[in-house]
Amino acid sequence: MSGTVDLTVMYATHRALRRELAQLDRITTAADRDPVRVLTTAAGWTLLKEALHAHHAAEDDALWPSLRLNLADRPKELGLLEVMEAEHAAIAAVIQAIDELLTGPGADPLRLGQLTDALIRGLAGHLQHEEDMAFPLIRRTLTAEQWARFSQVHAQHIGQNAPVLLPWLLDGADKPTATRLLAQLPAPAYAACTARWIPAYAALDRWSQNAPA
Questions:
Q1: 142 CB contacts (<8 Å, ≥6 apart)?
Q2: Alpha-carbon dihedral sign for residues 74, 75, 81, 83
Q3: Residue 190 and residue 170: Cα distance in Å, rounded?
Q4: Which long-range contacts (CB under 8 A, 24 or more apart) does 201-204 make?
Q5: pLDDT on residue 170
Q6: DSSP structure class, residue 175
Q7: Mean pLDDT of the region 90-108
Q8: What sign does the CA torsion over 16, 99, 103, 36 have?
Q9: Per-domain residue ranges for the chain?
Q10: Eight-state DSSP code of residue 185
Q11: 52, 75, 85, 141: least buried by Cβ within 10 Å?
């Protein structure tokens, strides 16, 4: 199936997630900041969760099922899909634990640091695992129609968050990647993204203690 699948958006999403993980690490290890307060109020934490949920939900709903159909007679590779899904579940559980800690009384910064470290290590490992093992499988196995379906489902999961998640995805992307991603947008979304969404995102201080949730 080589040539039918363009993984630009996948790599761009992974790069953006790694960027935010670096920010999360910086926030939770800074001696002059209260990580509980920052994560309780920072827009960056909300955006990280929203982007990750949209990405993983689209994979669970449309990517892994298509691959599972195509790999029905290849148990070793089917096992990889089970591992991918298990990693998604483990990451979601850590995020839930962080949010429960943040919303509970007397949140312990030490425990928060342990949980965010687990998230950083777990998500970084998953992204690398997916790139090393799942991406080549996607290229070899997925049809153009199946990839188009996944792209559609991914867009649906982004949904009304597109005005902030699309600039979030483009943040720091090199020019060829940004050009390719923008070219995939319908004309109205392209115009809105370049004229309004990107400037509004640029003005957002995502990881400030004073940023809105």
A1: 1, 4, 5, 63, 66, 67, 70, 150
A2: negative
A3: 12
A4: 201/164, 201/167, 201/168, 201/171, 202/167, 204/43, 204/164
A5: 97
A6: H
A7: 93
A8: negative
A9: 8-202
A10: S
A11: 75
Residues 6+ apart with CB under 8 A from 197: 162, 163, 164, 166, 167
Gap between the Cα atoms of 103 and 40, Å rounded: 8
Give, rounded to a whole angstrom, the gap between the first and last alpha carbons of the chain.
43
The residue whose two tokens read 């979601």 is 92
Alpha-carbon distance of 211 to 196, in angstroms, equals 20
**pLDDT given at position 211:** 42
What architecture does CATH give domain 8-202?
A: Up-down Bundle (1.20)
Share of the chain above pLDDT 90, in %: 84
Cα dihedral sign for 192, 196, 200, 202?
Answer: positive
Residue 189 above 60 pLDDT? yes
Cα separation, 207 vs 24, whole angstroms: 8
Rounded distance between C-alpha atoms, residue 64 and residue 48, angstroms: 22
Q: What is the pLDDT of residue 3?
A: 57
Identify residue 71 by its one-letter amino acid code. Answer: L
Provide, rounded to the nearest whole percent, the portion of the chain with pLDDT above 70: 96
How far is 14 from 22, CA to CA, in rounded Å?
A: 12
Res 104: pLDDT: 86
The length of the chain, given as a count of residues: 213
